[in-house]
Amino acid sequence: MNINSRKYMGFSFITAFIFLVMSHGAWAAEQTVAVLNMQKAVAASEAGKAAQDMVKSKVEELQKKLQGEEDRITELKQEMEKKSSVWSDTVKEEKTIALQKMVRDLRTKRDDANLEIKMLREQQLGPILEQMETVVKEVAQKKGYLLIMPKSSVLYSADQIDITEEIVSALNKAKK
Known about the structure:
By secondary structure, this protein is mainly α. The chain is built from 5 helices and 2 strands. It folds into 2 domains: 1-31; 32-175, 2-Layer Sandwich (Protein Binding, DinI Protein, Chain A), CATH 3.30.910. Helices cover 80% and strands 5% of the residues. A two-stranded parallel sheet has the order 1-2. Helix 2 (38-44) packs across helix 3. The termini are far apart. The relative contact order is 0.16.
């Protein structure tokens, strides 16, 4: 054998080896990659449902409080429309200032309510997300997953690599 045929055989062997390793690597990647719809997993879990119920009840409570303020503003506007023609300029000005103050106060209360709801969501969802991280790691180790990605970050994934339901089930078991 001359040097060129050895090079050719060596190159052929290396090429075949690389092809074999790459094809095996691609197969292995298919078997060890999964996607997770995190929002769906949180919403479907028992802890997530309880958190959503708590947040929903707080939203309803705050809406009732704010509705009373809105009703008072509406009443004052209607009163101003009906009676402004008989009021003196001083009374009109007082009512206008009162209305502006009520609107400003309502805006501030809405902002405060939104902040309160945001903080409540974070308070309720934080522990669930921490638990989910632990559960995902356990499932990954148990099933041999090398990579689990959020489904929202993936353009396409086959249904068979979606482990959302499995994570929901494991999360529910972990919370008991």
